[in-house]
Amino acid sequence: MEPITLCGLVIVALGLWVEFEPAVMAVVKWICKSRIIKAIISQSTVQKPVYIRRMPICVAKASHY
User: Around Cβ 29, how many Cβ atoms within 10 Å?
Assistant: First the structure.
């Protein structure tokens, strides 16, 4: 493509962004506040406890002092 065409596309893209930014940001906020997204995020960050059968040597020695 010619440079003038690319410059025109950039100008049009920026103009469309300025025009539709409030609507796009409203949709993004709505998606971030939705219960489904919160449920997905909260499920992925839940940490499961790690069960140790034996006490590590360093902890066992430190408790005797």
Answer: 10
> Could you identify the residue written with the tokens 């002092």?
65
Q: What angle do CA 16, 17, 21 make, to 5 degrees?
A: 125
Q: Give the CA dihedral 46, 51, 56, 60, nearest 10 degrees.
A: 110
Q: And the tokens for 1?
A: 């493509």
As a whole number of angstroms, the distance between CA 25 and CA 29 comes to 6
User: Domain boundaries in the chain?
Assistant: 3-63
CB 19 within 8 A of CB 13: no
Over the stretch 24-60, which tens digit does the pLDDT of each residue have? 999 999 988 888 888 777 766 556 676 766 656 665 5
